[in-house]
Amino acid sequence: MSAGPLVELKGIFKTFGGVHAVDNVSLDLMRGEVLGLLGHNGAGKSTLIKILSGVFPADSGEIRVAGKLVAIRSTRDAKSLGIETIYQNLALSENLDAVANLFLGREITDGLGLMNEEAMKKAADVTLKRMKLHLPSLTNLVASLSGGQRQAVAIARAVHFDAGVLIMDEPTAALGPEETRKIGSLIRELASQGIGIILISHDIHDVFDLADRIAVMKNGRLVGVVPTSEVTKDQVLAMIIAGALPTKGAA
After folding, report:
1. pTM
2. I need a labelling partner for 199 at 20 to 30 A (CA). Which of 93, 116, 163, 188 fits?
């Protein structure tokens, strides 16, 4: 396992019509780490993540993956580097089952170019077991699944295609307490397997439960990055609101 950062963002800038959406942000993610990314709407966190996932190109700055300087100009570039993003809307097809959603657009085919449904089902089962995840049935339509189960299918799709970096946008939004707990357990399991996870959430309680470090953004700038174990929720809230690091020794 490499001792260096899995992902390094250095001096990232992005403007839209003169507005500095991301203003000289440098941030890193370690292998097997859960990094919480917090900030009010408009803080720049979504734009920063879209740069890493290839939705927007950065105006300037560097991105390194496993120490190597890379160019991410499209979502295809990001995926080829093992960077997968799970957005809040999940992008699942409700009229298909879990297996079909897992392989959507990347189906396993036989020598005649026909879909090999048995091979896909077996591969899906292997991935779910790796994630220590249980669904009632792989052949149930996604429309019949609960919110947490749908989230799990979206995560499984990313993991199956060798995600080394998993970006999760509000993964527990609209979930009940029990399903939130299950998704939290899944996030911890994936981190234990060496996947680096960036967790975007408005729920500071979730972030404190799951994140090793917390990064806060405000007005396009990085306020700071703090180890979760060394700060209180009130201190992080102050970072979000005031845009300044907590004073040493402050409770």
Report:
1. 0.88
2. 93
